[in-house]
């Protein structure tokens, strides 16, 4: 642990009257789940093994089995992320094929290591999996475009384990408008409304992260089950359009929903435009999307070039303090029964001091220092997510 980090920990422990060992013991007693893991993108890489220890510095990965154990992460929702392509028959076909390939990859990960992972399809299954020492694998979808060619395929995904559906990503799709694009549908499309109702009937959680405000409002009005924001922040703290304003946070909670707090740096703090940085990094990020076809040595070289470009065009530093400002604000607004953690690991999440899942117990220490109880932490780290999952399944 770096000296500066150690000093912060000592101050926190003095503030809450705890020892480091006590915090770690409490953290280990909790069921610790994350609602948004983009790790399936890493699973596509040749030779990349989730059972082996990796490092963010070497290959930009943030989740593997050894680091999950280090950080006390019991599992979470592994996301079927599909980059948004053109809204054409060809684009929809590619999205359909991509989605099925990713869910197969997730299930193959579980099948290859039955001693380490177990697929959960009901909230009630999770405690027993954790008690067995295995990691919980839940399946979500980020961007519903794989369903555009055939929305009825949602039932197929459900049979394969899908239990959370994020309607849209960074661009508008066939179902909904994105928070970061000009409105096309002005909320949900007719197909999007049908998809929300189909998900309700199957007991699949509807995820409004990345969705426009209009989509949020319409989903909340339409859904027969509580709704989740699987990786979002507080707009009052970071005015990014992806984040939720206090009024919408309250309405989400009033309907029984949960907001899972994100760690994506550009969503945490306002940042000035930096065209030179964007120009340098854009081709590298496009190359990173092709990492599944690159051998490990090329991935390591790409990680080095990305770090060098980021160092040439630095952004204001973001840290665990910035995450906690969002987390504590949202807790103040809606209370600990409606908050969780969805850090966006392997999808751009992480800050200085919280670079990968091995460091998760620092959040526990911060929450204890802020006066939250062990029961509050149990709710925040996993209880609220499981409750919501169970309510969605009970409502169908």
UniProtKB/TrEMBL annotation:
Keyword Signal: yes
One Pfam family it belongs to: Peptidase_M19
Transmembrane segments: none
Lineage: superkingdom: Bacteria
Signal keyword on record: yes
InterPro entries referenced in this protein's UniProt entry, alphabetically: Metal_Hydrolase, Pept_M19
CDD domains, sorted: rDP_like
Signal sequence residues: 1-21
SUPFAM superfamilies: Metallo-dependent hydrolases
Keywords: Signal
PANTHER family noted in UniProt: DIPEPTIDASE (PTHR10443:SF12), MICROSOMAL DIPEPTIDASE (PTHR10443)
Stated name of the protein: Dipeptidase
Source organism of this protein record: Pseudomonas peradeniyensis
């Amino acid at each position: 642990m770096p000296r500066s980090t150690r000093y912060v920990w000592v101050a926190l422990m003095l503030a809450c009257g705890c020892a480091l060992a006590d915090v770690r013991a409490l953290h280990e007693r909790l069921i610790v789940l994350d609602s948004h893991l983009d790790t399936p993108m890493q699973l596509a890489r040749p030779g990349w093994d989730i059972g082996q220890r990796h490092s963010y510095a070497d290959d930009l990965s943030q989740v593997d089995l050894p680091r999950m154990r280090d950080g006390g992460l019991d599992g979470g929702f592994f996301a079927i992320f599909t980059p948004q392509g053109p809204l054409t028959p060809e684009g929809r076909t590619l999205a359909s094929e991509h989605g099925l390939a990713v869910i197969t990859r997730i299930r193959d990960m579980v099948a290859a290591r039955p001693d380490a992972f177990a697929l959960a399809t009901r909230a009630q299954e999770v405690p027993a999996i954790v008690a067995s020492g295995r990691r919980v694998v839940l399946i979500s979808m980020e961007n519903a475009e794989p369903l555009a060619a055939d929305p009825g395929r949602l039932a197929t995904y459900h049979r394969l384990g899908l239990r959370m559906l994020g309607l849209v990503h960074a661009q508008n799709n066939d179902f909904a408008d994105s928070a970061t694009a000009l409105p096309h549908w002005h909320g949900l499309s007719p197909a999007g409304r049908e998809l929300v109702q189909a998900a309700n009937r199957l007991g699949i959680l509807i995820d409004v992260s990345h969705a426009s405000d209009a989509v949020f409002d319409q989903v909340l009005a339409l859904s027969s089950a509580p709704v989740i924001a699987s990786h979002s922040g507080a707009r009052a703290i970071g005015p990014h359009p992806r984040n939720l304003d206090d009024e919408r946070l309250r309405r989400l909670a009033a309907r029984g929903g949960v907001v899972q707090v994100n760690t994506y740096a550009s969503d945490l703090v306002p940042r000035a435009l930096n065209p030179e940085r964007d120009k340098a990094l854009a081709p590298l990020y496009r190359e990173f999307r092709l990492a599944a076809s690159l051998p490990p040595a090329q991935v390591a070289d790409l990680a080095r070039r990305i770090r060098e470009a980021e160092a040439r065009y630095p952004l204001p530093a973001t840290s665990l303090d910035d995450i906690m400002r969002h987390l504590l604000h949202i807790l103040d607004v809606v209370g600990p029964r409606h908050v969780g953690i969805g850090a966006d690991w392997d999808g751009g999440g992480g800050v200085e001091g919280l670079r990968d899942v091995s460091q998760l117990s620092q959040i526990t220490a911060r929450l204890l220092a802020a006066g939250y109880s062990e029961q509050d932490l149990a709710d925040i780290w996993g209880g609220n997510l499981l409750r919501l999952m169970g309510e969605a399944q009970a409502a169908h």
